[in-house]
Amino acid sequence: MAKAEMPQIDDKDETVKNGSPTANGAPKSYTLHNVITRFYFAVQVIADIVVITGSMLLGYWFYHKLYTEIGLGKGIQPFEMYLRLTVITNVIMLLTFERLGLYKRTISVMNIDEIKGIFKAVLLTAVILFTASFYFKDISYSRLIVSYSFAFLIVFLNIERYLFFKLFQKLHTKGIGVRRALIYGAGEAGRMLAERFIRSPRLGVLLVGFLDDNVQYWGKKIRSKSDEVKYALPCFGGFEQILEATKSQHIDELFISIPSVPQTRIAEIIRQCEETGIKFFFIPNLFDYKLQSVAIESLDGVPLLTVKESHINWSYLIIKRVMDIVLSLIGMIFLGPAIVLLTSMIKKDSPGQAIFKQERVGLNGKPFMIYKFRSMYVDVPKYGMTPHNSDDPRITKIGRFLRRSSLDELPQLLNVLKGEMSLVGPRPEMQFIVDQYDTIMRERLKVKPGITGMWQISADRAKQIHDNIDYDLYYIENFSPLLDVVIIIRTIFMAIKGKGAW
Q1: pTM, full prediction
Q2: pLDDT per residue as tens digits for the range 81-106
Q3: CB of 233 within 8 A of CB of 206?
Q4: Quick one: pLDDT band at residue 19, thresholds 50, 70, 90?
Q5: How far apart are CA 331 and CA 323, in angstroms?
Q6: Residue 205: phi, psi to the nearest 5?
Q7: How far apart are CA 21 and CA 33, in angstroms?
Q8: Residue 171 and residue 177 in contact, taking contact as beta carbons nearer than 8 Å
Q9: Topology at the third CATH level for domain 31-173
Q10: Minimal CA–CA distance to 464: which of 387, 404, 380?
Q11: Does domain 8-23+177-307 have CATH number 3.30.420.10?
């Protein structure tokens, strides 16, 4: 691992206004955060009830609409019976949501865990209802109505949760309902964590500053060295100043990111957090091993850290390959006229072939030839670094449109049909970049590269692929057909909005 750089510090002290704790010793911001959290929970439950009820009634209406128009169905169904089913569905789904943790304000990558939870909850509720109808013969619901209702449930629950996700993101950006936090450790790991919080206000964490045992940081500002994320946050001191800093700054959470200190000091910090009612998170040092592969097991009540066993789900790989072939063929058929038109426009815009070919590294490090619509002039270096923005002089006029809409990736449907790529997966990189991979980065080569992936639909798509390995590691550890479908749908929306990666 490269030697850690010292953070930039500013000798200018920052004066902080002291606050006072509440009567029971808890910080005022902690109490306010709890009130806001309970309000969020109540609003979320009410919204879920409205959506579940509306979806069930919409399914009932849709059935009778089709029955009236084309005669599909077995006749008019009694409304009272389906009103009772709506109440039962609400109870089951709300309890299922609670058990699956859908009412916890958890931090997940692009809200993917919540989307998967919704699909699981709807499927489980459907199984419960269909099983109950088998045992209670005197109750007979129309399968069409139930099927329509649950289809609407999946669509509208995801829309509702997405709107709430964007609402919370907006509120957090404005500092409403955020959790005030300190990072203990101003070294490389702590600064990287600070960058993630500041870059992603949707996480709901307002970073106030640092604590560190190194006295040269005390009373000074620690500045970022990143050109993309700027911050200058004060260091309030070290271990002896934890109590004073957490009270004066109304701190809710403390993130411990000091992998090189003795365990006794970490235990002392945790004990201080417990005594002051501060929630703490500890980022362990696992010798540069990827944390996504770490699991917690129990031995007679004793928690143990271990490494997840690497496994290949062959059924998923078969489903994924079938999805790749079917969707690629459909895409090439429906987008055929657009492909012909774009080919003509590229040739008219600048001399040269419309299709650009370049060697990339694929599954298990095997090289292959990737196809793209040419978006740059033919005389630029073939293996140069990827452009960062639309102002790059190497990009042609039509190339700016292709990159902004991600249409330059369309020819890779042929790579998918040939089995060299998948629709979803880590983006393939050039050999000279792969040669610089460390052990963790080489995990990307364990799956087929994809036309799109989690990085492409993230807020970090403007940065280099290899600088955002977390997205690929998350995908590799959590891949599933459902996750692939979610990524494909979000990619389509990103392309329509014109937010492709440069």
Answers
A1: 0.69
A2: 899 999 999 999 999 999 988 887 66
A3: no
A4: very low
A5: 12
A6: -115, 120
A7: 14
A8: yes
A9: Arp2/3 complex 21 kDa subunit ARPC3 (1.10.1760)
A10: 387
A11: no
